[in-house]
Amino acid sequence: MIHSLFAVYYREMLIMRRRLTRLVPSWSVSPLLYLIAFGYAMGKHVEIDGHSYMEFLIPGLIAMNSMTQSFAIASEINIARFYWHIFEEIQAAPVSDFSYVAGEVLAGITRAFLSTCVILILGLMFGVTLSCNLLFWLAILLNSFVFASLAVGLAMLVKSHGDQVLLTSFVITPMAFLGGTFFPLENFPEWGQRLVYILPITHAAQAIRSASFGNIPPISSYLVLFFTGCIFFFISVLCVKKAKD
Amino acid sequence: MIKVHNLNKIYKSVHALKDVNLHVKSGELFAYLGPNGAGKSTTIRILTGLTQPNSGSVSLNGFDLKNSSIKSRQQCGLVPQSINLDQELSVYENLTIHGLLFRMGKAERNEKIEELLNYVDLSHRQQSLVKELSGGMKRRLMIARALMHSPSVLFLDEPTVGLDAGMRRKIWALIKKIQQQGTTIFLTTHYIEEAEFLADRVAFLDTGTLLVVDTPSNLMTTLGTWALDRLIDDKMEPIYFNSRDDANHYIATHKESFTLRRVNLEDAFLSMTGKKVK
C-alpha cells in the first residue's frame, strides 16, 4: 500500500516541481492583493482584539489559502483524467483506491504547506511575525486534509473540467469569504454565527488565528476538522471505486 | 492465458458486448478485429479492470479479475488507444512512476528502464520531456512503459493508430519481438494488414457479438486465394478464386475491368457481416 501511495504522491510532486517557478508567483498574487487592499489600505487604523488588522488578516488568509490550494488538487486530477487519461494508467496498476486517495490527499496537503510558507514570507514583508508553533501547523494540516479529501471525491464525480470550475464557485468561494477569514464572526447575527460554524473553514480560521497569536485554540475545532476530513476521505475512496465506469 | 466467459456490457441502452467467450493461449498473439464501435476497446477495458462488466467472468493466468483484481492487474500491461503519458514529465520519470505503481525496487526499476529504452530505441531521449517526442516515439514509449513490470499478458489497443506506414512497421516488428520473448499479446485493431501480419489467431467482432475465432489463413482460404474487384453501381464487388489461373481465365472471358489481388481478412469480414472493417 505504501509503495503505491508513494507512487501517486511522487507523480504529483514531480509535476509540481516542474511547475514551481510558475506556481510560487501564482500563490503570491491573491494574498499580496488582499494584504495591500484590505490590510494596508483599508485596515490601517482598524484594531481587532488588541491586534492590528494586518495581524488579524494573515492567519485568515492562511486558512483560506490552505483550503484553496489543497482543493486545487481536484484540477490536477481532472487534467490527468480528462486531458491526459493518466487516471487509466493508475487504475490499471495494482493500486488500491485507498492508496490512490491517500497519495492525492498528501499532495494536496503539501501544496497547502508550501503556499502557507509563501504567505508567511509576505507577512514578514509587511512587518507581521506570527507564532508558527505546532498547533498552528496542525490546524493547517487538518484544514488541508479536509479540503484535499473533498477535492478528490468531487474530482471523481464531475464529468468535465467545466463542472469542476462550477463546484469551486459554489463550494469554495462562499467559504473563503464567510468563514471568519476577513472579519470577526462576532459581526454576524447569532443565527449567522451558528450557520458559519457548520463550515470547516470557520474552525480552521479560528484555530490558525488563535495558535498564531500564541494562544491555545479550542480542541473542538481540531476534532471537527479531523472527523470531517475522515468522512470526506472515505467518501472519496468510494467515489474512486464508482469512477471506474 | 486469458479466459473470458459469457461477458456482457451494457452502456445505458447500448448492448456493447453480448455473451463474449474467448480463450487466448499462453504466448499467443491474438488479434481482435472489428470496425469502430464494435466493442474492442470495451473488451480491453474490462480485461484490464478499467470497466466493470454487467455479467460474465474473466481470468488472467488463473487469477479471477473480480476476486483477485490486484493480482490479475499485476499480470497485465496495457497500451491504450489514446496517448496517456505525463506530458510534462521526462521519459525516465514516466517509466519510474510506472515502476513505482507496480511496486518495483529502485535497482530493478533503473535496470529495466535502461533495457527497455534500448529495446524501443529511445535511450538517447531518456531525459527529454514527453511533449517533445514525436507521435511514433510516444507510442514506443507507451509500449516500453507497459513492459516495465514484465507482464505475462500485454494488451495493445490500436497501437498504431494515427502513425505513418513506416512507423507502423517499426511497431509491428517490436510487437513480434515481444511475443518471441513469451508474452501473450491481445491486440485490437481495425487495420487488416496489422492483424494478418501479426496474429496467430484472429477474432471478428461486430456490434458486440463475437462472430468467429480462427487463424488468418483459415479465415481467408474459406473464400479462395485470389480476388477480382469489379465496379458495380459505384460499389466494389469482389469475386473469389482458388487459383490465379482461374482468376485470369475469368478476366479473359469478361469485358469489364477488374483489379486482381490476394484475398485478405477484410474479405472474410465482409463475407460474414456485409460490411468493411475500416
Give an overview in words.
The complex is a heterodimer of chains A (245) and B (278). With 245 residues, chain A is mainly α. Chain A is built from ten helices and two strands, in the order H-E-E-H-H-H-H-H-H-H-H-H. In chain A, strands 1-2 form a two-stranded antiparallel sheet. Chain A is globular, with a radius of gyration of 18 Å. Chain B is of the alpha/beta class and 278 residues long. In chain B, the strands form three sheets. In chain B, strands 6-7-8-3-9-10 form a six-stranded mixed sheet, with helices on both faces. Chain B has a four-stranded antiparallel sheet with strand order 2-1-4-5, with helices on one face. Chain B has a three-stranded antiparallel sheet with strand order 12-11-13. In chain B, helix 6 (165-180) links the parallel strand 7 (153-157) and strand 8. At the A-B interface, helix 1 and helix 4 of A face helix 2 and helix 3 of B.
Please sum up the structure shown.
Chain A is mostly helical and 245 residues long. Chain A is built from 10 helices and 2 strands, in the order αββααααααααα. Chain B is built from 10 helices and 13 strands.
Main traits of this protein?
heterodimer; A: 245 residues; mainly alpha; two-stranded antiparallel ribbon; 10 helices; 2 strands; 78% helix; 2% strand; globular; B: 278 residues; alpha/beta; Rossmann fold; 2 domains; six-stranded mixed beta sheet; four-stranded antiparallel beta sheet; 36% helix; 29% strand
